[in-house]
Amino acid sequence: MLKNNNMSNSESPARNIIGNGTIIKGEIESNGDIRIDGKVEGTLRSNGKIVLGQNGSIEGEMYCKQADLSGRVNGKLFVDELTSLKSTSRIEGELTTKQLFIEIGAIFTGKCEMGKAESPKTETKK
Q: What pLDDT digit, counting tens, does each position of 10-34 carry?
């Protein structure tokens, strides 16, 4: 028997996966979480968490609530809450975040600003 939930499928945040071997060029917007194991070139916006796998890469700008990064990033990152750089991450560029956690082995080259208020650019278009 199916339950009638108050929240319809269109209202629930999506969980998106960009698989290994996939290359996306352009702009991506999501209300939900995104996991990237492939390559994204362009602008990435999420109202949720962005998880970058060990084999994943991002070239461009990234806007999100939280980031858990294990792969390569070259560009500008704007994270409203917590950014976690795992030991396999290689980050080059500018990072603006409220909190930053860096594991031993992670490489970060660039500029970092911490403690900023939420960025208005995080919200995806509706």
A: 555 668 899 999 999 999 999 999 9
CA–CA distance, 64 with 25 (Å, rounded to integer) = 18
Q: Beta partners for 77?
A: 62, 95
Classify residue 58 as exposed, middle or buried by CB count within 10 Å of its CB (0-12, 13-18, 19+).
buried
Which pLDDT tens digit goes with each residue over 67-101? 999 999 999 999 999 999 999 999 999 999 999 99
Q: Which pair of structure tokens corresponds to residue 74? A: 């070259």
**pLDDT exceeds 50 at position 60:** yes
d(CA 87, CA 4): 44
- What distance lies between CA 17 and its chain's CA centroid? 12
CA 36, CA 54: separation in Å to the nearest integer? 9
C-alpha dihedral sign at 42, 64, 92, 106: negative
Which residues are within 8 A (CB) of 21 and not within 5 positions of it... i.e. 6 or more apart?
A: 38
Q: pTM for the full model?
A: 0.82
